[in-house]
Design brief:
The structure is a single chain. The chain is mainly alpha-helical and 198 residues long. The protein has one domain. Helices cover 45% and strands 8% of the residues. It has helices at residues 36-47, 76-109, 123-129, 134-148, 150-155, 162-166, 185-194; strands spanning 2-5, 9-10, 13-15, 23-25, 119-122. The protein has a three-stranded antiparallel β-sheet, with no helix packed on it. Strands 1-5 form a two-stranded antiparallel sheet. The two termini are 30 Å apart.
Length: 198
């Protein structure tokens, strides 16, 4: 599988928007923009603020807890929901730019492409040089916050503790061994029904 630089995309998906290490399968509008580790780091960080997420890592607004109830007319709630969705669109753009910059930097560090140029990298080589780990996800999440949402680090200093952020527990059945064999939504539901046991 060939990875396009600096986009961080390939024929059937893209690199995680946060860490640029894990692969994300393209399932059209119900796709995740982040790997499992970054999704869990995002959830862990959000709990400090009483929420379920800081970054909108789902490709559809509903995946990020946002939607507009069209039956409520012109109400303050509807305006707030629309404002939330507009804000989410802006954050998606920032995250996309973040991925392009990180992928370009990471590829240039390995000498695969010169800085500022486009190219292609074998995905197996990318995975070998940039393994996907909870700690790398936590470091990338923290770097993103430092650059784009530093006020959160002032509000909650624990977010700066990489080891705390990386202390996540993801059941094995949710992690892919091979990108081509990613866990389907049906398998995910079955895993939830059985508690991950086969």
């Amino acid at each position: 599988m060939t990875l396009r630089v600096p986009d961080g995309t390939f024929a059937s998906g893209w690199l995680c928007t946060v860490c640029c290490r894990g692969a994300c399968a393209d399932r059209e509008r119900w796709s995740w923009l982040a790997c499992e580790y970054c999704q869990e780091v995002n959830r862990r960080a959000a709990k400090l603020f009483g929420g379920s997420r800081i970054l909108p890592l789902g490709r559809h607004s509903i995946m990020n807890g946002a939607g507009v109830n069209l039956s409520i007319g012109d109400s303050p709630e509807r305006k707030a929901a629309i404002d939330q969705m507009v804000s989410m669109g802006g954050e998606w753009k920032v995250m996309s730019d973040w991925r392009r910059t990180r992928v370009a930097d990471m590829a240039a560090q390995q000498g695969w492409v010169s800085m500022g140029s486009a190219g292609e990298v074998d995905f197996d080589d990318w995975e070998r040089e940039f393994p996907n780990t909870p700690k790398d996800s936590a470091k990338a999440f923290l770097a993103y916050l430092l650059k784009h949402q530093a006020y959160l680090l002032r509000l909650e200093p624990q977010l700066q503790d990489v080891d705390w952020l990386a202390d996540i527990d993801i059941p094995e059945w949710r992690l892919d061994e091979e990108f081509d064999d990613y866990v389907t939504d049906e398998e995910l539901r079955e895993g939830l029904d059985t508690g991950g046991e086969e």
